[in-house]
Amino acid sequence: MVVIPEPASLSPTPMPDNPQTSNAPWFSLYDHRLVVLQGRDAVAFAQAQTMNDVAALLDGEWHWNGWLTPKGRVIALFALIRIDTDTLWMVVPDADADVLVERLRRFVFRSKVSLAVRDDLHVAGRLRASDLASGNHWAGDPATAIELDLSGDLDPGHAGRSLRLGPATGAGRDAAGIEAWRRADLEHGWPRLDATQSEQWTPQQLSLDRLRAYSVKKGCYPGQEIVARTHFLGQAKRGLGLVRATELLAPGDGLSVSDTTVGTVVSAAGDVALAVMSLESAVAGPENDESPAGGGASWVRMPMRGGLVR
């Protein structure tokens, strides 16, 4: 069996191309789609349905957010952008945006808000920090394009990440860029949930408090009671761990130590993955030896990167 060195000696896997160049190209994030909420009740509707404090956002700001089942399980995660008083944009990765919109529409009732998937508005990424946006402030003109900065804490030599949204991105497809983007999401602790992982995990199990992606104080929303109870009673027993493996992992794979399952893979990119793991077990994150995962692969737990809080 292959021995993986300790995390401290693991060198970072380089991103494809060279993000240090000033002309780092934009590429299509075709696994992301844009949902627009429009109307005088758009903010109130999102405040009542999503798990973060939308009312606290000012025009020109954005944050991480998600939608939960009544039992507090994450249906979908997204970046939520406040364009103005009556307009919100949701950048939805991986999830079926059409299904998400149809499910949300069931709760509109008499609210003055429309929801639509806007495939005429495209999502593009670039492996370079934004020249315009910073922190949770977006920049640009929604009529042409806006940018968000998603750099976080990257290795020296990496120039960050930018997200661009608008009617025309001028961005082609780049499989290597997509992989690098997904990998950066995972290394910063932002889970990428495919259909098999939807409605499986609570925000605490996905450690979304690291990114301030949910609120326990803003008032009622689907699943809020369970989320708040878990928070205030300290009942969370599992959280998210970043691992590197000798073989490719897939969502749903188990992570084991000495024939004991200690975690379940939530999302993966190349040789790295995010897994929900026991917070109490001393073997939850082996750091000095190899551990069988899935079909006999070995893995070690890695420290997550910071700097992606918005």
**Arithmetic mean pLDDT:** 88
**How many helical elements?**
4
How widely separated are the two ends? 41 Å
Question: In percent, how much strand structure appears in the residues?
Answer: 25-35%
Dominant shape: globular
> Biggest sheet, open or closed, and with what strands and sense?
6 strands, antiparallel
The CATH H-level superfamily of the largest domain is Aminomethyltransferase beta-barrel domains
- Highest CATH level, the class of the largest domain: Alpha Beta
Sequence of secondary-structure elements: EEHEEEHEEEEEHHEEEEEE
Helix content: 10-25%
Structural class: alpha+beta
Radius of gyration: 19 Å
Number of strands: 16
Low-confidence stretches: 1-21, 282-290
What number of structural domains do the residues give? 2
**CATH fold-type name of the largest domain:** Alpha-Beta Plaits
Structural write-up:
The protein is of the alpha+beta class and 310 residues long. The chain folds into 2 domains: 27-187, Aminomethyltransferase beta-barrel domains (Alpha-Beta Plaits, 2-Layer Sandwich); 237-303, Elongation Factor Tu (Ef-tu), domain 3 (Beta Barrel), CATH 2.40.30. It has 4 helices and 16 strands. Strands 12-13-14-11-16-15 form a 6-stranded antiparallel sheet. Strands 1-7-10-9-8 form a 5-stranded antiparallel sheet. Strands 3-4-5-2-6 form a 5-stranded antiparallel sheet, with helices on one face. The radius of gyration is 19 Å and the shape is globular.
